[in-house]
Amino acid sequence: MHVAxxxxxxxxxxxxxxxxxxxxxWDAHFEDTDDNPYLNDFYEDMQRWSFNLQVYFLRSRFxxxxxxxxxxxxxxxxxxxxxxxxxxxxxLHAMGxxxxxxxxxxxxxxxxxxxxxxxxxxxxxxxxSVPTLVNQIQRRGRDYENSxxxxxxxxxxxxxxAWISTxxxxxxxxxxxxxxxxxxxxxxxxxxxxxxxxxxxxxF
Length: 204
Description:
Layout (H helix, E strand, L loop, with lengths): L1 E6 L5 H12 L2 E3 L9 H6 L1 H26 L3 E4 L2 H14 L5 H15 L7 E6 L2 H11 L9 H16 L5 E6 L9 H16 L3
Parallel strand pairs: 1-3, 1-4, 2-3, 4-5
Helix pairs in contact: 3-4, 3-5, 4-5, 4-7
């Protein structure tokens, strides 16, 4: 079984992935940020490094999905390959930070990869307002995120909402992060567990 968590920067994906891993005993696949050779450069010069960064993420997440499918285990994944293609790359292109030539090349590559993989059995979307995202980004204090602009987060949020509103590839669970504190509140986390149990039980 493949459960994946989607959401904007700072929405709590890694925190929830870690807590669900411990609770259910699932294997966890995390987003590759610490070893990403392009991330710092990207936030310093988005136009120069946008294509390189997106191709790196695309390759990394495709490998994750292949590994998940081959493992035969219950897996929880921090961010999906679909967010790269439906959210981040189109946003960079629309902002003029990725050329049309590079964007077409990227989307053709995604289309080829997508023909070999399927959607997760359950997609969990963490919905959060920009103030909540900013607060959580500041709390975790990653240096390379200090230069993220509010309009950039807002553009991403708009694209996430547009994508989720038409998502039909599998089961979907939406969690409103503005009104729940699953990181620190056991009752709130328990509510999420009950919602996941209800969705997962319907998969078998």
